[in-house]
Amino acid sequence: MLPYGRQSITDADVEAVVEALRSDWLTTGPRVTRFEADLAAVAGAPCVAVSNGTAALHTAYAAAGVGPGDEVVTTPMTFVSTASTAVMLGARVRFADVESDTANLDPAAAADLVGPRTRAVTAVDYAGHPAEYDDLRKVTDSVGATLIADAAHAIGSTYRGRPVGTLADLTTFSFFPTKNLTTAEGGAVAAADPELLGRAARFRSLGMVRDRDSLREPDEGGWHQEVHEFGLNYRLPDLLCALGSAQLARLDHFKARRAALVERYNELLADVPGLRLPVRRDWVEPTRHLYPVRILAGRRREVYGRMRAAGIGVQVNYIPAYWHPAFADLGYRRGMCPVAEAFYAEQLSLPLFVDLSESDQDRVVATLRGILGD
Ligand SMILES: *Cc1c(COP(=O)(O)O)cnc(C)c1O
Predict the structure, then answer these.
(1) How many Cα neighbours within 13 Å face the side chain of 349?
(2) I want to staple 315 with a disulfide (CB 3.0 to 4.6 A). Which of 4, 79, 98, 179 is the partner?
(3) Does the global pTM surpass 0.85?
(4) Which family does it belong to (predicted)?
(5) Ligand 1: nearest atom to the Cα of 126
């Protein structure tokens, strides 16, 4: 089966991991520090590496102080962890609808839902295309909320010339193998504000405080460290950070290759009937994680089945988050975000990854053309 996404691994990646394995540090060593610095250079803000993208969101919400009594406004067109990690901290999630073309959080819909209880607004850069951060910033400023970017899809993307990582107060990344960059499992939180970044760093390491000026009992002894607020062990080991730095060295290539494949899909599919292709705003330069098309005329389920039967691993991204039974059990009802639900009903992700060959891409196009021409 041709996958819809997969990692690109070179000998340099393998050697970097082997070298880490033979070193003194398997975790919490120099390769973590180096990966965080390498990431910061791309994200435009200091970064804290964590164990995965879900942990990154949990950490970002904890750093933003999200807790019981708070509300978090976000998009339903995302992987469940954008919303579930806020619920796990005791917040109520309010789902605002998306723009019909980009499937990103609609700033006007978010503006309708924010109020005095809103602690954070979380946008998702769907498929790698940054959300409308200038408009979202006005929304969070109006109520003093924290702006969070779930950029699991979008490392290396830019918005109005600014890198993803500088557009929100806190930005989260995922380095799962299907994403734009991988560390197997992995993630990161970026924040320009040292206070927010410090809270994220502490949450990632069980809440441990070591720096002498912050200790309540500074004279306890050289061994002493304190927990002031509870955290988790969300650290990313040196082994995986070594892979991350090696991968980051190729991020420009990844971005260019994905852009070329997207351009090729756009051209080859332009005249296929019953299909709508993804859009790109002029002021955005995405690192394209997904190539999401819309299958019109109620044929998505049929096309999904026939593509898979032909050995082409198409995917659907995503069922609206509040359709998950855990949200339904909390009282969330279908119909809440009609634009997102209409998008979901037609959405299909075609294979897109760095090592996708043009001949495999041609086969995807020919198969889809054959099905839709029926
Ligand atoms: C992948 C993903 C996550 C979760 O990342 P993991 O590393 O799989 O935990 C969160 N949000 C979005 C939008 C994602 O695509």
Answers:
(1) 21
(2) 4
(3) yes
(4) Belongs to the DegT/DnrJ/EryC1 family.
(5) 13
